[in-house]
């Protein structure tokens, strides 16, 4: 099978596009200039949002850069904990999928907002796990929440594909 025949298969085309977009996006965000100009400020915004939510809940939280702290606990939000990786995976899937531009726009905007909302819940819950169940913080952070955020991103993509991207059968 040659490249042209492979490209004619929708599933192969999706996979090639998905992996290409994903590879390019991961490479771009790994560049020091992009990290310094975009990823770190983006992560600081996530930290400020997390601090705001914690203050709404009565926590005396302060934010310095990417560190959210209170007299009871502190957490540093690193790249990988900011929802960006899951967002890039999701966006790559949306952009690679054969769909109308309007459906892709709905997917990208809706997916990014939803992933960040889930990630905000993740950070706030991890903060409280650090306060009340510190012995479970690492397991909750690494095994539970990382898995849940990735599963949420994949689930969002599946919902988007079925609801907005795939042609709907008329009754």
Give descriptors for this structure.
171 residues, mainly alpha, 3 strands, 6 helices, elongated, 3-stranded antiparallel β-sheet
Q: What do you see in this structure?
A:
The chain has 171 residues and is mostly helical. The chain has one domain (3-165). Helices cover 74% and strands 5% of the residues. It contains six helices and three strands. The protein has a three-stranded antiparallel sheet with strand order 1-2-3, with helices on one face. Strand 2 (67-69) and strand 3 (74-76) form a beta hairpin. Helix 3 crosses helix 5. The chain is elongated and about 60 Å long. The N and C termini lie far apart (39 Å). The mean pLDDT is 94. It comes from Candidatus Sulfomarinibacter kjeldsenii. Its EC number is 3.4.22.-. GO terms for molecular function: peptidase activity. It is an enzyme of class 3 (hydrolase). This is Exosortase H.
Which series of helices and strands comes N to C?
HHHEEEHHH
Number of helices: 6
Describe the strand arrangement of the main beta sheet, using strand numbers. 1-2-3
Low-confidence sequence ranges: none
Q: How many beta-strand runs?
A: 3
Rounded mean pLDDT is: 94
Q: What is the CA-atom radius of gyration, in angstroms?
A: 19 Å
Broad shape? elongated
Largest pleated sheet: 3 strands, antiparallel
Strand content: 5-15%
Number of structural domains:
1
User: What class would the helix/strand composition place it in?
Assistant: mainly alpha
Helix content: over 70%
N-to-C CA distance = 39 Å
Protein name: Exosortase H
Organism: Candidatus Sulfomarinibacter kjeldsenii
Keywords: Cell membrane, Hydrolase, Membrane, Protease, Transmembrane, Transmembrane helix
Subcellular location: Cell membrane
């Amino acid at each position: 099978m040659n490249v042209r025949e492979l490209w004619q298969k929708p599933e192969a085309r999706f996979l090639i596009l998905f992996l290409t977009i994903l590879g390019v996006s991961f490479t771009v965000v790994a560049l020091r200039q992009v990290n310094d100009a975009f990823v770190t400020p983006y992560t600081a915004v996530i930290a400020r949002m997390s601090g705001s939510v914690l203050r709404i809940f009565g926590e005396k939280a302060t934010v310095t850069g990417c560190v959210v702290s209170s007299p009871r606990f502190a957490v540093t939000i690193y790249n990988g904990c900011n929802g960006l990786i899951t967002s890039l995976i999701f966006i790559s899937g949306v952009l690679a999928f054969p769909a109308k531009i309007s459906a892709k726009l709905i997917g990208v905007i809706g997916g990014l907002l939803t992933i960040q909302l889930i990630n905000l819940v993740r950070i706030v819950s991890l903060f409280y796990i650090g306060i009340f169940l510190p012995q479970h913080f690492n397991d909750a952070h690494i095994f539970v929440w990382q898995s849940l955020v990735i599963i949420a991103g994949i689930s969002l993509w599946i919902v988007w594909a079925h609801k907005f991207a795939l042609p709907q059968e008329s009754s």
